[in-house]
Amino acid sequence: MVRFENVGMRYGMGPEVLRDINMHLAPGSFHFLTGPTGAGKSSLLKLLALSHRPSRGLLTLFGQEVSSLQREDLPSYRRKIGVVFQEFRLLNHLSALDNVALPLRIMGLEEEQILTNVTELLNWVELGAQMQAKPPTLSGGEKQRVAIARAVINRPQLLIADEPTGSMDPEMGLRLMHLFQELNKLGTTVVIATHDIELIRRFPCPVMYLKQGTLHHTDADEYLKRHQRSGL
Hints:
- By secondary structure, this protein is an alpha/beta fold.
- It has a domain at 91-155.
- It has eight helices and ten strands.
- The strands form two sheets. A six-stranded mixed β-sheet has the order 6-7-8-3-9-10, sandwiched between helices. A four-stranded antiparallel β-sheet has the order 2-1-4-5, covered by helices on one side.
- Strand 9 (207-211) and strand 10 form a beta hairpin.
- The protein is globular and about 45 Å long.
- The two termini are 28 Å apart.
């Protein structure tokens, strides 16, 4: 599904923010991505979301080496990826329902099916009463739930989420984690960036952690032990 081989990334002529990244994510796997602020998590997520290309090395997504993709090919690959960014990136002139419906409309589904699927999902994330509300009228947590619903509505092959439960109360955060798990059971590869140690403790999955631009791999138990010892 995802393979990084000695990948480096820099912005412009600046220093590398990611160095010699090696990573292999199998189809249907579930991973946490963590590390201190400034370690390069956002940059790694940009590479996974195809919003930035590596400066060096090989990055393969869905069996295709990214550097060989033409600009006009990118949209079809991006439609296989669901992305939840911290800044939400909702369209303020559209209702919650229409924001979530966008991926399905791009796919060309019938409007009746779109309405059924979107209504069911928004009710599930407890936004049934806000379906016609526009983002400026929603709270941060509500916007986050709309963004998550939009990212998962078309059952993407790869889901990338940056602190998806950061603005949630604990109960809703757990509800959404269970949603990600169910999506994962259907075959979606999931990568969740988080600083929440309790999330990793409660949902023990493989952990990737970034430190000064380099990526390390471990399991949840070992990561929790290291975190307790040294505050990773």
